[in-house]
Amino acid sequence: MTPLAQPVVTPAEYLVLERRAREKSEYVNGRIYAMSGASRLHNLIAGNIFGELRAQLRDRPCETCVSDMRVKVQRTGMYTYPDVVALCKEPDLEDAELDTLLNPSVIVEVLSPSTEGYDRGEKFAHYRRLESLQEYVLVAQVIPRIEHFRREGEHWVLTEISDSGGELTLSSLGCVLKLADIYDRVDFPAAGAARDG
Question: Around 7, how many Cα atoms within 13 Å sit in the side-chain half-sphere?
């Protein structure tokens, strides 16, 4: 993430700029950060997850969104665009624009070389402040591996799924996603040939 020219802006200023912008940006600690475009692998994986969730949630009072739904962490003021968000309750939206979700139950981030450290570290620290968040999922794009963090009271419990027959169980949504479906049509790059995205 690269900060844009403005040094510090208010959340209101960010939203005015963001709603007029052609490219998406995140807002963290008073600063705006341009988001880079995603690779084909990144988009395939995020699309597969969205498609599987959408199919399983179709006849239930649930929603799932892919990458364009902005999420605000009210306790820290961060605005961001997760790769996939889902919830099975009434969405709580910030204002009449209906473009900023306040209460996701599940957030999925597909890891990219340039953002992996941020997704694991500072971003997850912000996400943990979302009282609604029950599950945080990190999906590798260069090897078949999923890290599933599930909230249990004040603690987060990690489960890793990496074998070809593995399944990701999202208990807050009542959904089970097969590793093979998440990585459908994904050809993993040779070691050392992973590209940013």
Answer: 0
> Do 6 and 98 have their domain in common?
no
List the CATH number of the domain containing 63: 3.90.1570.10
Q: Indicate whether this model's pTM tops 0.70.
A: yes
User: Residue 37: is it exposed, middle or buried by C-beta count within 10 angstroms (0-12/13-18/19+)?
Assistant: exposed
Q: Which residues of 136-150 are buried (b: 16+ CB within 10 A; e: fewer)?
A: bbbbbbbebbbbbbb
Mean of the pLDDT values across residues 141-164? 96
**Is 143 in a helix, a strand, or coil?**
coil
Distance CA 115, CA 130 (A): 21
Sign (positive/negative) of CA torsion 11, 124, 4, 7? positive
What are 71's two structure tokens? Answer: 């999420």
Structural domain including 9 reads 1-35
pLDDT tens digits, one per residue of 177-191: 999 999 999 998 765
Structure tokens at 145: 């591996």
Q: Could you please report the per-residue DSSP string of 98-132?
A: --EES--SEEEEE--TTTHHHHHTHHHHHHTT-TT
Phi, psi of 52 (to 5 degrees): -65, -45
